[in-house]
Design a protein that fits this description.
- With 271 residues, the chain is mostly helical.
- The protein has 13 helices and no strands.
- The longest helix is centred in the last third of the chain and has 25 residues.
- GO terms for molecular function: ATP diphosphatase activity.
- It catalyses: ATP + H2O = AMP + diphosphate + H(+).
- Its EC number is 3.6.1.8.
- This is Nucleoside triphosphate pyrophosphohydrolase.
Length: 271
């Protein structure tokens, strides 16, 4: 099958997408925008697409999820094409690496180990395997391998989780709550007496400890904040709807009225 036939063959699978990507990057006949891109310029789109996948799942928008997963897959294909052009690796290398990793990390499925383990034991085994992989990559420090490009709240959670594995952790959630109280007091003091940079530092400390509290409570902070964002959006849109029923917009209202409508929206949700 010729390349042009493959591109227009709707029954073709991943090979069709790989060929489309190669054509988009062709220096002579490709798309000027795609040709100009590099890893750094595409990375923000990759992050954005991952969040759009999470958003579709959060909203249970299953029809949208298919397209969002396709967008995320295309990001992997884009990076792999650029890597192939630079002589680093190919898409097939990416597939092979992931397949090998999944097989090696699941000896209870693909090897001789017993599946008669608790989920907790399997998690411990998983972490032990990953630790051995990090050692093989010459990652010696406890925090090595926690990606710098992660969203800050998620990275805080992962850094604290990694440190806890070696015993650097508060004994209980009560200790974390006490630390939050301390950080809040420091933030209030900083607000009144310190520079903006120092206030920002104290605020960052508070967020960092809040992430740790989530870990102690078994709550993933990034997911919790996404849920809180969704709840706020839903309720504020409810306030806007109630204002619209009165022939008003938020800018035509005031805090007292909107706060009362907010309580009404909350009551409606509980009803």
């Amino acid at each position: 099958m010729q390349e042009t036939d493959l591109i227009h063959d709707e029954t073709a699978g991943i090979e069709r997408l790989l060929e489309i990507m190669a054509r988009l990057r062709d220096p002579q006949t490709g798309c000027p925008w795609d040709i100009e891109q590099d890893f750094a310029s595409i990375a923000p789109y990759t992050i954005e697409e991952a969040y759009e996948v999470a958003d579709a799942i959060e909203r249970e928008a299953w029809d949208e999820l298919k397209g969002e997963l396709g967008d995320l897959l295309f990001q992997s294909v884009f990076h792999a094409q650029m890597a192939q052009e630079a002589g680093h690796f190919t898409f097939q290398d990416v597939v092979r690496t992931m397949s090998d990793k999944m097989v090696s990390r699941h000896p209870h499925v693909f090897g001789g180990e017993s599946r008669e383990k608790s989920a907790e034991q399997q998690t411990r085994d998983w972490e032990a395997i990953k630790a051995a992989e990090r050692a093989g990559k010459a990652q010696k420090g406890t925090l090595d391998g926690v990606a710098v490009g992660l969203p800050a709240l998620l990275r805080a959670y992962k850094l604290q989780k990694r440190a806890a594995r070696v015993g650097f952790d508060w004994p209980s959630a009560d200790n974390v709550i006490a630390k939050i109280t301390e950080e809040c007091a420091e933030l209030v003091e900083a607000r009144d007496t310190l520079s903006h940079a120092e206030v920002e530092e104290e605020f960052g400390d508070l967020l960092f400890v809040m992430a740790n509290l989530g870990r102690h409570l078994g709550v993933e902070p990034e997911a919790a904040l996404r849920a809180a964002n969704a709840k706020f959006t839903r309720r504020f849109e409810g306030v806007e709807a109630k204002l619209a029923a009165r022939g008003k917009r938020p800018e035509d209202s005031d805090l007292a009225e909107m706060d009362a409508l907010w309580d009404e929206v909350k009551a409606d949700e509980r009803a």
